[in-house]
Design a protein that fits this description.
This protein has about 425 residues and is an alpha+beta fold. The chain has a domain of about 140 residues: Cytochrome P450 (Cytochrome p450), CATH 1.10.630. The chain is built from 15 helices and twelve strands. It has a five-stranded mixed sheet with strand order 1-2-8-5-3. A three-stranded antiparallel sheet has the order 4-12-9. It has a two-stranded antiparallel ribbon with strand order 6-7. The termini are far apart. InterPro entries: Cyt_P450, Cyt_P450_sf.
């Protein structure tokens, strides 16, 4: 069997300090040792792979030989305190492709109205902290998509309160799974969760058997707690992807202007390519892990029981062996007409939280529903020259992302 090499260290903590200081840089450094690299966090030997075939074998082919490593255990080494377990089995709702198509076709006008009502308060020349703006916008849109409720509905209010508490207590991306007993929470949080559960029960009691257009109806056999978890996991992926997408638009004004000038199907297709490329450079799930439950051979490597293999979409997506000019923003690489061959398991922006094509399409369509009306209504420029990525639960922005919005005299046409 092959031995997996990596950087040496004589510290008791292994490579923990290097990982803490800059996890993204550390992972990039590891990839220079090859497509399978070993390193040490404390006394535990871990591995990182950037080989698509090995990723496929670990995640899919030999899935029964591995279990998910909770994100709490992954980022605990970053000294982010008071984290809760991220339950990979409770990710984006397991919707079907036919549902996604029908859902967004049915609610296209409603979704556009929600976004337009939010940005109608924006004036030309306004300074906006987009990280904050997108949180409420994503929450309102997702509340309608999940539950069919309006902005002023009690359920939306309770969800907004929970989102605010999560932002104040932790980082916006913190997912608290499983939800602790109500008695362990502060009164405001306990009241908000009880309010959500009460509203969900009311929706369930009064829904029609003919109403199958909302995501809530797909989650028929799940508990209120699981539904709430799915909501906030999906919410975090959407608001994170929207923030990085708007940043890439600000970085590439030519791409922004091109989107603004396109119409109809051409605009939809090019927006799809732009979102895919933004997710390639800034995947929300930048790192996830698999732990062997038994000794297992993958390719020519033997992994012992309880050894952990990390997979970093952030590193995978920047592998120059598979992506031409990997650090450049090139939406055309996802053009269907070019028939670019990207290995099936090389592109994992949502890790295993949204593993099916339909789940990815759902998140991407929500991102488009939020961002396309913004970029076709305003010209957007960023205030800070560079925003640095930071590896936390999700791939967050290290600095606040502020933008200045201005309007053209003539309205820009959007296909939404």
């Amino acid at each position: 069997m092959k031995g997996i090499q990596g950087p040496s260290t004589y510290r008791m903590t292994g490579h923990l300090k290097d990982f803490q200081e800059n996890p993204l840089l550390f992972l990039r450094h590891l990839s220079e040792y090859g497509e399978a690299t070993s390193f040490r966090l404390g006394h535990r030997r871990c591995y990182l792979t950037t080989n698509p075939q090995m990723v496929k074998d670990i995640v899919f082919t030999n899935a029964n030989s591995f279990v998910d490593v909770g994100i709490k255990n992954v980022v605990r080494t970053l000294q982010v305190h008071d984290l809760y377990e991220f339950n990979f089995s409770t990710g984006v709702p397991k919707v079907k492709g036919s549902f996604v198509k029908k859902h967004f076709s049915t609610f296209r006008i409603e979704h556009r109205t929600i976004v337009q009502s939010h940005i109608s308060l924006w004036e030309s020349g306004d300074l906006k902290v987009f990280n904050e703006e997108v949180q409420d916008l994503a929450l309102c849109l997702l509340a309608h998509s999940f539950f069919g409720v309006a902005n002023k509905h009690d359920l939306t209010g309770h969800l907004r309160k929970l989102a605010e508490l999560r932002t104040k207590r932790h980082q916006p991306s913190m997912i608290k799974v499983p939800i602790p007993k109500l008695g362990k929470r502060n009164p405001i949080e306990a009241h908000a969760i009880a309010g959500v559960f009460s509203c969900l029960q009311s929706l369930y009691n009064h829904r029609s058997t003919c109403e199958q257009n909302n995501v809530y109806n797909v989650l028929d056999n799940e508990s209120e707690g699981d539904i709430l978890q799915r909501f906030f996991i999906t919410y975090d992926l959407i608001r994170n992807a929207c923030s990085w997408l708007m940043y890439t638009f600000c970085e590439h004004q030519d791409i922004l202007r091109h989107i603004q000038l396109l119409k109809g199907q051409e605009q939809d297709e090019y927006m799809r390519m732009v979102i895919l490329e933004s997710l390639r450079l800034y995947p929300p799930i930048w790192l996830f892990g698999k732990q062997a439950v038994e000794a297992v051979q993958v390719d020519n490597y033997l992994f012992k029981k309880n050894e952990t293999i990390f997979i970093s979409p952030y590193s995978l997506h920047r592998n120059e062996a598979y992506f031409l000019e990997p650090n450049e923003f090139l939406p055309e690489r996802f053009c269907l007409d070019l028939n670019v061959d990207i290995p099936q398991h090389l592109y994992l922006p949502f890790g295993m939280i949204a593993e099916t094509e339909a789940q990815v399409e759902y998140v991407m369509t929500m991102v488009k529903a939020i961002t396309l009306p913004l970029v076709t209504s305003f010209n957007i420029k960023k205030v800070r020259s560079i925003i640095h990525p930071k590896g936390e639960i999700l791939l967050e922005m290290k600095e606040p992302f502020s933008i200045v919005v201005t309007k053209d005299k003539s309205p820009i046409v959007t296909s939404l």
